[in-house]
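Hey team,

Filing this mostly as a record. A colleague (T.K.) asked me to run one chain through the structure pipeline before their review meeting, and I want the input and output archived in the tracker in case anyone asks later how it was produced. No errors, nothing strange. Just documentation.

Input sequence:
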Amino acid sequence: MSPRPARAAVPARWAARDRPTRPWHPSSDAYAVTDVRRAPAPEIAGTMPGVPWSADRAYPIRPADLRRPGSSIPVWLPLRLALAWLLGTFAVFWLTEPARRVENPGQLCTFVLSATALFAMGYAARIRRRRPLSTVTGCTADQLRGVRQLVLAGAIYYGVLNLARLRDFGATGPQSVWASIQDPATAYANKFDVYQQNMTSGSALLALLMPLGVLSTVLVPLLVVHWRELPAWLRLAGFVGTALHLAFYLFIGTMKGLGDVAIMVVAGLLVAVATARRRGRAGSRSRLALLLVAGVCALTATYMVHSHAMRAAEFGSAGALVRASPAVERAVGPDTAEGVAALIGYPTHGYLGLSYNLRLPFEWSRGLGSAPAATMLAEDAVGVDPTAHPTYPDRTEEATGWPARLYWATIYPWLASDLTFVGAALFMGLVGWLFASSWCAALTTRRVVPTVIFGQVCILIVYVPANNQLGMAPESVVGIVTLLALYLIQRPTPGHPPAAPAGRTRRA
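Output structure:
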């Protein structure tokens, strides 16, 4: 083997930036250059057997350089995870007891698979239209200042809102909250009495905080994505605010708060890992993220099993939807087995409700069917009568007895109340487009709005087998409407991030 020739001359203004930070070996992909400058070196090409050399660089081509443009950004990862969840829950549904009660399996399969396909097509159309070529791994000073302000505002909002809720629902201190966490069935039953009282005398403070609902969407994702860039006191404030949010929902025996926080944590970890500054850090972050995701999912699933087991014992609803397996009963006991069965039926039984809704004709709900919380706001603001134009789930309850507020029927009947089922399926295409757009913008601009929207769309997708989760709480409706308005105003351009410090842009 002939000795390697001397490196071609490189202009002095390029030398400092082009110099490798550590030796490179053909079998390693650890060598990285943050800002490659072109320098003609045709005389060195092909001098190392088995190692491709660039005709216009003074270095050998790394394996990563042989990939097609944009492949360094995992643009398809969110779609793969979403499809695995949507198709997985639908497949598991057919293995459960409620599937035997479906009278229109062909219609149900055609609609669900078509809506899921349109969701994937919307995502793919957005990626194909403008594929991102680089990620921004750092924030400008102005961006970081805004992030810190929003994290502080979100922590204060969560603290004030959930302390007021805990007071209204009868919490007397940490002991009462802990007692409710240990006995979620009793806490779940008690909340309905409070709901009836609040319908006639709502809290003035909660009404005052409602227009600030967008602050309920920013804390968790920004806290996760920018954890390393926040001071310790701000991390603590964010942690306390999130803990109070979880404490309220656990105090009333409801899994919504725990589920929403878990989803936003996972969404934030996806963005944080994808924008890691160096490959070594990206690898370590990926491993840490996997451990955190596994821990969050395990804790959430464990508490759900405990909660549903106690609910089944309290209300005598054992086997109402999914019967516990005898083998599981022998292994872990009847109570835990009932909780496991409920955990399986929890995200899947809504497809039975969907099959009932598909059999009814369309009757327009005058724009009041897609989001129940928006209906309540309209009722309070202008005196709208929601019973004048009932939703699909309400009409299905009258026709079949499937309870609209007790059991689920997926997101589709709620959307179809205003859009028809064909329109609901097409709407999923728009959701796919927004899902891809917010993901790419979060990676290529590091702006707050697309990052937060990505977390909210993740919540929407995870709850597709259940209901329109973003339309169930007033602060969620106000938050998503505000975020979409800001997103349209800002109009971030993927692939053209704002100015960032040198070396912070990772090229494909």
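Quick notes for T.K.: Residues 158 and 200 are 24 Å apart (CA to CA). The first helix runs from residue 12 to 18.
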